[in-house]
Amino acid sequence: MKLKRYGWLMLLLALAMVAAACGGDSADTTTTSGGGGGGTATTTTTAGGGDTMATTTTSGGGGGEMMTGPGVDVANKVIRLGYLADLTGAFAPLVIDITDAQRIYWDKVNAEGGIADGWTIEMVVEDTNYNVEQHQEKYAKIREDVLAIGQSTGSPTNVATLDQYVADDMLFIPLSWYSGWAIPDFDHGLAFEQNTNYCVEAMDLVGYMHDDQGAQSIALVTFPGDYGQDAAAGVKMAADYYGMDIAYDGEATVIPGQDQTPVVTEIVNSGADFVFATTNPSTFAEILGGAVQGGYQGLWTGSLPTYDFRLLDTPVGPILDQAYFQSAYSATWGTDVAGMPGLQEAIIAADPERRPSDAFIIGWTESIAIRKVLETAIANGDLTRAGVVAAANSITDVDFDGLAPNQSYAGAPNDYVQRAIAIYRPSLDAYTAAGAETQTVSQDGGGTTGSLLEKDFFVSDAAADFEFTAPCYEL
Amino acid sequence: MRGRPNLFISYESEMSLFPTVTQRVGILVLVAFAVLVPLGAVPFFGFLGDNAWMVVINRALVFAIAALGLNLLTGVAGQVSLGHAFFMAVGAYTAVVLGGDSGRTIWGLGLPIWIWLPAAGIVAALIGTLVAPTAVRVRGFYLAFVTLGLVFIGLHLWRNLGKIAGGPTTGREWPPLEFAFWRGQSPLVSFSTEGPWFGINLSKDAKTYFFLLVVAILVAFLAKNLMRTRIGRSWMSIRDRDIAAEVMGVDEAKGKLQAFAVSSFYAGIAGALYAVVLGRVIPESWDLLLSVEFIAIVLIGGAGTVAGTLFGTFFVVLTPRVVEDFTLWLANQAQAGGFFSPIANLFVATGSSDFGLVSTGAAGPGLSIFQLNIVLFGVLIIVFLIAEPLGLFGIWVRIKNYWRGWPFTY
Lengths: 475, 410
What we know:
The complex is a heterodimer.
Chain A: H1 2-34, E1 56-59, E2 65-68, E3 72-73, E4 78-85, H2 92-111, E5 120-127, H3 132-142, E6 148-153, H4 155-168, E7 172-175, H5 184-187, H6 198-211, E8 217-222, H7 225-242, E9 245-250, H8 261-270, E10 274-278, H9 281-293, E11 299-302, H10 317-323, E12 324-328, H11 340-350, H12 359-379, E13 382-383, H13 385-392, H14 413-416, E14 421-426, H15 428-433, E15 451-458, H16 461-464
Parallel strand pairs in A: 2-13, 4-5, 4-6, 6-7, 8-9, 8-10, 10-11, 11-12
Antiparallel strand pairs in A: 1-2, 3-4, 12-14, 14-15
Helix pairs in contact in A: 2-11, 2-12, 3-4, 6-7, 8-9, 12-13
Chain B: H1 11-15, H2 21-36, H3 51-76, H4 84-99, H5 113-137, H6 141-160, H7 162-165, E1 172-173, E2 178-179, E3 189-190, E4 195-197, E5 200-202, H8 204-226, H9 230-240, H10 242-247, H11 252-278, E6 280-281, H12 288-301, H13 306-336, H14 341-347, E7 348-349, E8 358-359, H15 369-387, H16 391-404
Parallel strand pairs in B: 7-8
Antiparallel strand pairs in B: 1-6, 2-3, 4-5
Helix pairs in contact in B: 3-8, 3-11, 3-12, 3-13, 4-5, 4-6, 4-11, 5-11, 9-11, 12-13, 12-16, 13-14, 13-15, 13-16
């Protein structure tokens, strides 16, 4: 009985804390959206939240008139960017590195005095668990508080949330390289796509295998859906272009978690010069190991997300070292380019015990790109969402300091779509010599992911001649 | 005589849906509360009217519909089913094939909601009746395993039936929530676009909320009503002792069939609404975890009662959000310093070198909030099974009884 009475007391205490937490949350919402002084009572946001979407014009902040909207705190010169990141789901290992690189980038920029004339960036990070439902709920949670979405993980998640982005006129960087993101009919000009896309990438890879490795026949194995079939479309167009033979067409035949034996058998029987795979790393390792065991002796390549340097820790490491050609949209960790030392220093300073990762560079370059957008919008005196979208669709020649090829976003997709990739080869020796799994970014030489540059950024003939006017694969 | 609990002077009054005045008033207050929520007009709970909360509450309403269905099957008729996600998927895909747009790679007839919504329930119910005979042959664990198999068969089908489900990992789009007489006509009422209703400007989530609220109230009444009919009583007798029920003349096979059909009907409707509200669902969504969530709802809420199921749903769906807000609030407290600061510091890790059970950063050492929620659920289910088998409903009944006898409670 006594215990029970304490139980109620505890429950009451817990409830009080929870109520305080919820109340605190809503008070936050008022201050951030209104920008006014601390409202502690419950908010009276109308159902639509329509009022907070209104744009206001304020003078101050750079002398001229600055139009601002949600996500901008003029008084303190703070811009809030949303990050809908998969921190616990299927792509968490990759996305955690990307998101941390973005955080480290903005911390550095803020510490150095911010962008333009002293604006600082605040990240609002939400975990989406690579789940459509969570993505939408988290977006609804932050939409009134952010100016743009600095990173939004996944294809199905972004496609499902696209309607809401359109309703809010919200610029977002999709962490998904589907070719449709470059097409205004599909994304309403809101997806601020980075790097190339799966379709063009596939053309470049096939071009490389044809021109530099003398390959004539392809075994194609991909996941179904936007990722696998976008790449498959690119492979087929390039094969057509070069007159190559598709010895096995396994478009959309690889389903994660299912038995891969039929696919493996087809690869072995095809006797193709190389295999083009568009899967995830674990499925790829399964197929690679199976086919080599079955006697397949050709070369291997695949879309960027197919490979992960952590595969070098597994039994397929030696095969990757021998036969894999790795695609890259941006430089890998430690590659000798102008922007690399600055990036490495910042990451070492922030987290010296961190394992090296190529994903840091993706997060870093995405931040550089959106910084350019914000600077342009500030220069235009228009920090509203519409202003940010207009800025994003007007900038040209964003310079990534060699970390990625320069990129433009103005004009028609065919004029500006990024067509360049680089080719790397995994080196098990280099990776093991640096300490394999035990590496840290602060060790001598900075560690390595084992990727050695084979061919610097190039555009294949097939990709260069490709008229890009519609998504390669229609969703 | 009036106002005395458990004293009924006629059969009608004992059997009525809400036998006491308190209950009737309570229901009215609840409905008024529910209507005012999206307007942000409820004192102290105004924040629930934010879109951020409306989205979560909408999911809770959809889950409530599905959970009511599972409650009829598992809680009332005693048939454990792990296949609820499968029946939801059947409903969702029926809805999208009938109501969705067709494309080069997908089927869709573009029919209006008054066709696809009932059809979603009916098709799911038909498939439910096909499964029901196995429930006559096996029970308990074995039935759970049979229905578990359904989820995996379903997952295989949805991944491979591209014309119906869209591709794996991409899925397809569901029709918007709007009412039109026939395809191609502009909708008479749209529940999925922002705009004014009766002079009040409402967000799309608020409109969706009202639609879901009406459906949820309807099916909740249906469930409550069903439980006091001959069919409902036959289900309960099968649950309590199937052999005894048969001896008394209850047709066990028929009862189980009905239970499966009705439960699947609920699941079908809920599945269709779930997908329509989300807009796009990938085939992988209809997995075991979804089924388990409903089992958790029924167990935590209290098996066999409508009110318990509703408690359970809101508890299970809203708790993660509350835990999340709470953890973030604790993290703020830990950093700001203050009354709760020492406790908060123990619990939350804010940086990569900070100690704590939960980390709020992207790559902290502790559990992520998502993992914390999963752990919490496991613990909650165990605690409820051991300490309060009647679930939240049981706690509610005890509170009620305490006040009923007040001030002579002992």
